[in-house]
Amino acid sequence: MAGRRARTGRGWDAAPPRAGADDTTPHPRQGHRGRSEEAEPTSGESTPRDESEVAREICLRQLALRPRTRAELAGALAKKGISAEVSAEVLDRYDEVGIIDDAAFARAWVSSRHNGRGLARRALANELRQRGVDGEVASEALGELDEETEAQTARALVDRKLRTARGEPDAVFRRLVGMLARKGYPPGVAIRAVKDALAAQSAEAAEFAEQIDADALADAEGERG
């Protein structure tokens, strides 16, 4: 055992090199230029990130999915714990450079959802409100969708559904009026669109359509709503 203790070299019991020894290998705590690394963060440490930078990254990730309103982005930032002050600062800057534009968003939303889903102004107004678009901004965007265009879209929706509709004319009439109502069409627009479409479909449907008083039904539906 005594012989083992006397052992020297580079094994487990080797003595550390003496200070000032001629050893060109850098010490594990020293850089290649002899600079101590103690001031630098270790691999387990991380530098705190700037809150504004985090906020910008959150916004850009949201915008990469689809356009967003200012209110939607503010909500996303709040959920991630971004302070109201930093959120306002970042969103103000995005407003200035045009990255977010609620008016443009509203116009694009109205056009896309009307042409793609056949939604009427009432349904579109509700969707814009849910996304935090200001009422005046929403009204301006909805103003681009006139009554004639809305009526034409309603009729096109009905014509498409009638191609596969089955059942007695009165049952078909109720289903189609209900479909238009769910898409936000006023009772008068919905009833007239279905009545006119049925009148052009067949003799039986036309006979049923002749018995429909669109104005009276619209007034009754309006009172019920």
Explain the layout of strands and helices.
Blueprint: H1 2-5, H2 51-65, H3 70-79, H4 84-97, H5 102-117, H6 121-130, H7 135-142, H8 147-162, H9 169-182, H10 187-199, H11 203-210, H12 214-224
Tell me the distance between the termini. 100 Å
Encode the helix/strand succession as letters.
HHHHHHHHHHHH
Whole-number average pLDDT? 82
Work out the radius of gyration: 35 Å
Tell me roughly what share of residues is in helical segments: 55-70%
The coarse overall form would be: elongated
Strand content range: under 5%
By DSSP (H or I, 4+ residues per run), the number of helices equals 12
Quickly give the structural class.
mainly alpha
* Largest sheet properties: none
How many strands in all? 0
Low-confidence stretches: 1-46
Describe this structure in words.
The chain is mainly α and 225 residues long. The protein is built from twelve helices and no strands. It has helices at residues 2-5, 51-65, 70-79, 84-97, 102-117, 121-130, 135-142, 147-162, 169-182, 187-199, 203-210, 214-224. Helix 2 packs across helix 4, helix 10 (187-199) packs antiparallel against helix 11 (203-210) and helix 10 (187-199) runs antiparallel to helix 12. The termini are far apart.
Short description:
This protein is mainly alpha-helical and 225 residues long. It contains twelve helices and no strands. The longest helix has 16 residues, at 102-117.
Key phrases:
225 residues, mainly alpha, 12 helices, 0% strand, elongated
